[in-house]
């Protein structure tokens, strides 16, 4: 606040800096008692209100200072011709705001004295009794393994020589560290092993005198009660001398090494084998105490947690007498998430409580609302020990819902945007400061690594509860149905993206003035491809095809967000937005903008006025073709991520962005300002950098100017040339040589390089890349030899693909010669060599320790001329794949540790030793199964292809004798005779048969077997000429069956008998051209999918129940099939022509329909169903009917249902409904009494909206639904729309895009209150009459406007967005009270001739 920039700016505005100093003084005055207030607010609501008021005032003060600094920065970046006027307005506003905030702080300062708040450290949160060594072992569950592991360590010899062995038990509060230590302390083996034992509860204060005295008394009960530390340490040294002792220091918080060093001085006289156990919540404590072993204590399993809960909740721990409480109790235990303290506390609170409603209250209550809660106080202690900078970072994490997995890097960027990262006292970058903050919270057990993905972190549910408690009302998770509960003062908002986010979900935000964070969160199933880019194990370039996008109301980015002036974090990722409004430039405080995974095409130039912007994420914007040309003005930009976008060229002068810490991609251009030399000044760039289109580099000097060798913070560098035919790469050798990176680089990719050789800096003898961990050489087509990579000491992953001219790999590759005993590739763990068509010889040098002493994965594929030897000894290899090496004749290397082996389509890769040597092999894929006289004993997965003797193999007991085999795949095999029998192991869970012929010979005997464990059966792309019956009874656990592209199969009849499966997840039948009939059994199916069976005529289901039915491209199949089951929730029918003529598709009996899609050419189909049932079940995917003609009764019922109860309807579905049905205005008049108008019933395209449906939907839902086609093609329909809209009682929300009908809404006689979005492309006389009391919004896009609105008199309305008129002379004639934003994009725009009695906000793109 008192920074030089702020004070300098204020002096320039002739404002008194005393005002800010007074404000700063008041802030310091109230902040002095903040620690005490935070402690007391837990139990004192008045103090909590005071804290919230203070935080609110601080937020306002920060916004004020940010306004000042932002305005100063704007004036620095822009040539403002109106500076003097702005000074007056800006200065007056600043002074009044400073006075207002100061008054608030003065009030809070007085109130703090009334509340009794004091300076310094807050009072104790709660009374905590010291722990003891006693434990009731019968009440401990799930710690046997941990106990044995720790006892084993205690009884072992010291791994650290003569030093005392310290083991630290680390975990969050309440996880059971003390209990486990008590078990170990009282173990009889421990008693016998050690001469002396002592237990000390250290707790928050590391009192050296008290701890030493406690130890002395524990080992000598007769010791005097001295308070002299020197005497106590001498006594302790005497007692411990020549003794093997065991000491427990429980609940340690000390992070000061000197304290520990003073305490442990007497311990050094103990015998080797002496041990100390430390329990703590912090890894830093464990490190300070020089722990030789750190044991992170995990959560209890559900069963163990339930046992602990039941022991304390039920008499004698027996829950069987109360089954109704048992069911609720198990749900309560799930909330505990494996935390023993929570299970014990909640169980004890419910002991002897037999009322179901009380148990349900506990289940449905927040943790902080529970009676006699001991859980959060235990966790709150951890929070109280956090320094203030970590407290706000942790509290901010309450925006994440429970179980949400977040990324470290992204959270740090969010902290940075919110201003939480203080680098004033450090030379570190903000990113490094944030990294330290993050790992501090990890080390203190606030965050923990996700079990599902190593790049993610999570918070325990109770830690999440703590975050919500301490963040108060300032962080809100927006949940459906709770939008009205949002408070006006909250600052940070997060929510999960829904299937369609309408404006109403966010409408409450219009009342929130100080919102800083607008953060939609990734649903669990959405891809996060950006994390995959970080993996060093990527063997070849990959593309990403599935990019989901979700609809978002147009009003959110266009109307709502630009008005939230203090927004700092804005994310719209995964939404289907294609552009942003120019008004995005109004968000002058914005620091973080994330548009990743959106189809946005370009950014408005106004983005370049966001001078505070630090992070811009545009990754996976696959339609983004360009960046704003003035991006060089974003001088505070630190992170620009454009991975996997379609940006063709970088903006000019990007090198001016000297604050950039991360630039993921740079596309080299040919123009000045876009060349590779622009990277010269970006010396702080780190992380990933991909330099593309390097063929555009002018010369080697330009490459040298990029100064990659000086970019010490880069971890991952990717150098890419366009290697398409005809692209000139002259001088590529020199360019690559001059693009030498810094020696700190860890990962390097060279792709599309057409030079003849690699540069010297890449391998030995230069030894410049000593830290490189991963190297990928992709499509380097012209090189004839590899660089000497074998001597790179850190190289772990080497992937080579597409080196088309390499014929020999020899000594040059290893960086040594045949006589040398020097090992090579000493760190290499994975080697992949793919697609080298001329490679013939691999010279294996052997050498001391072999060429690849640590290699674990080896891939050799698509090298058709390779004939030489393979490395003969790979002692640590666990995975080997050799495929499509047609001339390779070589023995397999000795691989005693192998677990996965693939040898397919090679000439003769044979076994060097019997199969018994492959004792650990778990997965085998081979095209020569005959080599294996017996299968490895622990084999679980087997893939057999191109086998000529498969009949014999299946008849023998070779497979059946394997008791571990679970997955069997048969590919490209042909059966020539009927099998005598089929001998497969009973352990089989998955069977897949691909691209095989004459399966009838196999299946005849196969169906006589019994596979009690088989869950998945796939038959794909094969032939089977006859199959009378498909017995499901032999597969009692089968849940997934796929029959796809099976030729010759004419009928498929599934039978079921006693002992067969009772339910089925998925039945998938597709692409069977000869299939005529299918008969399904009476089973409960979850999903049935039948498609692309051109001759299928009969589908019988024998009263089977299925929840989802998909039928597609079966033109001969007659539908319906004996009526549909009542539990059907999803029905999809596509390209059917054989509906029963004049029949009714009766769907009225369905109990809970959720998704229906019918696309048919049948003109006589009548649908009869209750649409309102969709609303009752909370449908996420609305009804969708697409067929060309609806009967009158059905259509009217459909519309009536929509109007009465439908909650959501996607606009594209409605357009399709109208288009396919060719509905005319006369039909609508007939159906609905002429009350509504209808858009053009053109056969090809709907150009304007159906007002009827808009009104009906508005009556029921009142959402902003934009229903229009964005086509400018002329309409060929000769019918004119109805000119009147009468008797309507709801908002008309979209009358849109009529290209030629000027009288679409000529007059009205109802009580509509809004007319929105009437857009015409040709007519000027758009709206001749508007009802009194109406508001007119968006009268827009008229190309020939002489009088845009003829008569607007006597009404109280606002006219918004009179726009895009190139020659509008009269904009508003009348008494409208406000005209907003007449935006003109045509240079010929004239100043409006007349704007009568209207407030004009903005006229045109220039100030008028």
UniProtKB/TrEMBL annotation:
One of its GO terms (biological process) is defense response. GO terms for cellular component: cytosol. Residues 150-316 form the NB-ARC domain. It comes from the Eukaryota. Keywords: ATP-binding, Leucine-rich repeat, Nucleotide-binding, Plant defense, Repeat, WD repeat. SMART domains: LRR_TYP (SM00369), WD40 (SM00320). GO terms for molecular function: ADP binding; ATP binding. WD repeats lie at residues 1352-1382. Residues 19-82 form the Disease resistance N-terminal domain. InterPro entries: Apaf_helical (IPR042197), Leu-rich_rpt_typical-subtyp (IPR003591), LRR_dom_sf (IPR032675), LRR_R13L1-DRL21 (IPR056789), NB-ARC (IPR002182), P-loop_NTPase (IPR027417), Rx_N (IPR041118), WD40/YVTN_repeat-like_dom_sf (IPR015943). Residues 399-467 form the Disease resistance protein winged helix domain. Gene3D superfamilies: 1.20.5.4130, Helical domain of apoptotic protease-activating factors, P-loop containing nucleotide triphosphate hydrolases, Ribonuclease Inhibitor, Winged helix-like DNA-binding domain superfamily/Winged helix DNA-binding domain, YVTN repeat-like/Quinoprotein amine dehydrogenase. Residues 677-801 form the R13L1/DRL21-like LRR repeat region domain. This is Disease resistance RPP13-like protein 1.
């Amino acid at each position: 606040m008192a920074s030089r920039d702020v004070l300098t700016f204020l002096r320039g505005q002739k404002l008194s800096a005393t005002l800010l100093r007074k404000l700063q003084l008041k802030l310091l005055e109230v902040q002095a008692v903040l620690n005490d207030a935070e402690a007391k607010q837990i139990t004192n609501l008045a103090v909590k209100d005071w804290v919230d008021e203070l935080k609110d005032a601080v937020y306002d003060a920060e916004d004020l200072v940010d306004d000042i600094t932002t305005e100063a920065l704007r004036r620095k970046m822009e040539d403002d011709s109106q500076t003097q006027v702005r000074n007056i307005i800006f200065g007056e506003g600043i002074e009044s705001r400073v006075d207002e905030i100061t008054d608030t702080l003065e009030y809070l300062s007085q109130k703090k004295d009334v509340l009794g708040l004091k300076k310094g450290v807050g009072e104790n949160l709660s009374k905590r009794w010291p722990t003891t060594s006693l434990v009731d072992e019968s009440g401990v569950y799930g710690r046997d393994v941990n106990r044995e592991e720790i006892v084993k360590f205690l009884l072992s010899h010291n791994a650290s020589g003569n030093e005392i062995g310290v083991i630290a038990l680390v975990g969050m509060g309440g996880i059971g560290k003390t209990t486990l230590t008590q078990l170990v302390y009282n173990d009889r083996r421990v008693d016998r092993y050690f001469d002396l034992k002592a237990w000390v509860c250290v707790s928050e204060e590391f009192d050296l005198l008290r701890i030493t005295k406690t130890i002395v008394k524990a080992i000598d009960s007769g010791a005097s009660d001295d308070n002299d530390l020197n005497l106590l340490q001498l006594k302790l040294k005497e007692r411990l001398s020549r003794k093997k002792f065991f000491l427990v220091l429980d609940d340690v918080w000390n992070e000061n090494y000197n304290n520990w060093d003073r305490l442990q001085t007497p311990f050094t006289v103990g015998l080797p084998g002496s041990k100390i156990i430390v329990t703590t919540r912090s890894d830093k404590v464990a490190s300070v105490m020089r722990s030789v072993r750190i044991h992170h204590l995990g959560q209890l399993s559900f069963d163990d947690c339930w046992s602990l809960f039941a022991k304390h909740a039920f008499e004698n721990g027996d829950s069987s007498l109360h089954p109704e409480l048992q069911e609720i109790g198990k749900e309560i235990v799930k909330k505990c998430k494996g935390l023993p303290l929570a299970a014990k506390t909640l169980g004890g609170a419910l002991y002897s409580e037999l009322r179901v409603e009380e148990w349900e209250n506990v289940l449905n209550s927040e943790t902080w609302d529970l009676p006699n809660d001991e859980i959060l106080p235990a966790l709150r202690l951890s929070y109280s020990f956090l320094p203030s900078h970590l407290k706000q970072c942790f509290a901010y994490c309450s925006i994440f819902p429970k179980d949400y997995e977040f990324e470290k890097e992204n959270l740090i960027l969010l902290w940075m945007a919110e201003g939480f990262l203080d680098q004033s006292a450090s030379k570190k970058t903000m990113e490094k400061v944030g990294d330290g903050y993050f790992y501090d919270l990890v080390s203190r057990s606030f965050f923990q690594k996700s079990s599902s993905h190593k790049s993610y972190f999570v918070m325990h549910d109770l830690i999440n509860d703590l975050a919500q408690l301490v963040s108060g009302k300032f962080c809100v998770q927006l949940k459906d149905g709770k939008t009205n509960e949002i408070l006006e003062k909250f600052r940070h908002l997060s929510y999960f993206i829904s299937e369609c986010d309408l404006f109403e979900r966010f409408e409450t935000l219009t009342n929130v003035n100080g919102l800083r964070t607008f953060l939609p969160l990734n649903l669990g199933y959405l891809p996060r491809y950006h994390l995959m880019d970080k993996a060093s194990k990527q063997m070849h370039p990959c593309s990403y095809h599935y990019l989901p996008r979700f609809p978002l109301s147009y009003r959110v980015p266009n109307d709502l967000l630009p008005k939230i002036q203090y927004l700092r974090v804005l994310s719209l990722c995964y939404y289907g937005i294609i552009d942003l409004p120019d008004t995005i430039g109004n968000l002058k405080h914005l620091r973080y903008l994330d548009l990743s995974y959106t189809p946005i095409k370009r950014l408005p130039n106004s983005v370049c006025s966001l001078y505070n912007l630090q992070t811009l994420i545009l990754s996976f914007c696959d339609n983004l073709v360009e960046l704003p040309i003035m991006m060089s003005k974003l001088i505070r930009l630190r992170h620009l991520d454009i991975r996997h976008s379609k940006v063709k060229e970088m903006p000019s002068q990007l090198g001016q962005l000297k604050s950039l810490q991360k630039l993921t991609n740079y596309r080299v251009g040919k123009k000045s300002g876009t060349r590779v030399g622009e990277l010269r000044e970006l010396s702080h760039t780190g992380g990933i950098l991909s330099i593309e289109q390097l063929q555009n580099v002018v010369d080697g000097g330009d490459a040298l100017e990029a100064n990659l060798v000086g970019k010490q913070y880069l971890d991952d560098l990717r150098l890419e040339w366009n290697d398409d035919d005809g692209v000139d790469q002259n001088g590529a050798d020199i360019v690559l040589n001059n693009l030498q990176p810094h020696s700190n680089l860890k990962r390097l990719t060279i792709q599309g390089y057409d030079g003849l050789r690699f540069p010297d800096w890449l391998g030995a003898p230069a030894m410049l890349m000593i830290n490189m961990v991963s190297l990928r050489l992709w499509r380097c087509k012209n090189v004839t030899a590899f660089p000497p990579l074998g001597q790179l000491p850190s190289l772990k992953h080497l992937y080579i693909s597409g080196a088309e001219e390499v014929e020999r790999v020899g000594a040059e590759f290893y960086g040594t010669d045949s006589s040398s005993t020097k090992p090579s590739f000493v760190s290499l763990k994975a080697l992949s060599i793919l697609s080298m068509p001329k490679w013939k010889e691999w010279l294996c040098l052997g050498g001391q320790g072999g060429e690849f002493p640590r290699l674990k994965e080896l891939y050799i594929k698509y090298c058709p001329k390779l004939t030489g030897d393979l490395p003969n000894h790979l002692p640590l290899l666990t995975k080997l794949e050799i495929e499509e090496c047609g001339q390779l004749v070589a023995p397999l290397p000795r691989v005693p540790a192998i677990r996965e082996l693939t040898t397919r389509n090679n000439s003769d890769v044979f076994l060097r030793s019997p199969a018994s040597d492959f004792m650990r092999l778990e997965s085998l894929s081979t095209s020569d199964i005959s080599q294996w006289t017996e299968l490895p004993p622990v084999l679980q997965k087997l893939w057999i292809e191109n086998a000529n003797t498969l009949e014999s193999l299946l008849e023998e007991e070779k497979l059946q004798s394997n008791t571990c085999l679970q997955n069997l795949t048969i590919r490209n095999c042909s059966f020539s005779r009927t099998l005598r029998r089929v001998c497969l192991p009973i352990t089989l869970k998955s069977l897949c048969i691909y691209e095989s012929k004459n399966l009838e010979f196999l299946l005849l005997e196969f169906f006589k077997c019994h596979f009690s464990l088989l869950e998945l059966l796939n038959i794909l792309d094969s032939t089977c000429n006859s199959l009378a019956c498909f017995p499901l009874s032999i597969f009692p656990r089968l849940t997934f069956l796929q029959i796809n592209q099976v030729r010759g199969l004419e009928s498929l009849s599934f039978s079921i008998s006693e002992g067969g499966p009772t339910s089925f997840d998925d039945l998938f039948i597709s692409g069977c051209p000869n299939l005529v009939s299918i008969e399904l059994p009476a089973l409960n199916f979850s999903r049935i999918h039948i498609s692309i069976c051109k001759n299928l005529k009969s589908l019988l289901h024998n009263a089977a129940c299925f929840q989802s039915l998909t039928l597609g491209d079966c033109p001969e199949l007659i539908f319906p099939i004996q009526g549909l089951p009542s539990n059907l929730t999803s029905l999809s029918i596509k390209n059917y022509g054989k509906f029963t003529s004049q029949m009714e598709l009766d769907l009225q009996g369905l109990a809970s329909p959720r998704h229906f899609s019918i696309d048919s050419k049948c003109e006589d189909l009548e649908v009869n169903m209750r649409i309102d049932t969709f609303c009752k079940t909370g449908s996420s995917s609305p009804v969708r009917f697409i067929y060309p003609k609806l009967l009158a009764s059905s259509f009217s019922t459909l519309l009536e249902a929509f109007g009465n109860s439908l909650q959501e309807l996607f606009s594209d579905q409605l357009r399709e409904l109208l288009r396919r049905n060719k509905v005319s205005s006369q039909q609508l008049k007939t159906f609905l009494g002429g009350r509504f108008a209808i858009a053009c019933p053109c056969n090809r395209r709907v150009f304007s909206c159906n007002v009827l449906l808009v009104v009906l939907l508005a009556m029921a839902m009142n959402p902003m639904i934009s229903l229009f086609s964005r086509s400018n093609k002329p309409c060929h329909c000769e019918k004119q729309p109805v000119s009147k809209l009468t008797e309507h009682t709801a908002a008309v929300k979209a009358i849109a895009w009529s290209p030629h009908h000027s009288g679409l809404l000529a007059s009205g006689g109802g009580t509509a209150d809004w007319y929105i979005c009437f857009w015409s492309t040709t007519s000027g006389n758009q709206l001749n009459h508007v009802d009194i009391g109406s508001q007119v919004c968006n009268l827009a896009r008229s190309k020939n406007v002489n009088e845009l609105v003829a008569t607007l008199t006597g009404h109280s309305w606002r006219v918004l967005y009179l726009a895009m008129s190139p020659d509008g002379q009269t904009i508003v004639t009348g008494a409208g009270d406000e005209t907003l934003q007449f935006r003109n994009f045509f240079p010929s725009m004239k100043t409006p001739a007349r704007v009568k009695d209207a407030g004009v906000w903005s006229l045109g793109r220039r100030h008028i």
